[in-house]
Amino acid sequence: MTVILRCVLIVVSILLTFFVLKKIRQSKVKIEDSIFWVMFALMMVVFSIFPGLADICRNVFHIQFHLYVCDLYPVGEGVLPVS
Is the pTM above the cut of 0.90? Predict the structure, then answer.
């Protein structure tokens, strides 16, 4: 992961954390939803600071990740013409 991408992830995850906490203080989020969003925001901060931790978790839980080139290019009406 490049340094620029890590910096962007850190900034976005911290902004997400502040946004969620602000909405909780304003009581615009239900308690059930706020628990999920706080945990998600904290997970984003941790994974953006320590990107290798995601690989460790993937190995511990035996999760396989396959990315095919065809998944990167959306094919459909008006996106990429199919001949």
Answer: no
Q: Are 6 and 51 in contact (CB under 8 A)?
A: yes
Q: How is 32-79 classified by DSSP, letter by letter?
A: HHHHHHHHHHHHHHHHHH-THHHHHHHHHTT------HHHHS--BTTT
Is pLDDT above 60 for 77? no
H or E stretch covering 13: helix 3-25
Q: Are 47 and 54 in contact (CB under 8 A)?
A: yes
Instruction: Please report which helix (H) or strand (E) contains residue 3, including its range.
Output: helix 3-25
Handedness of CA 51, 52, 57, 62 (dihedral sign): positive
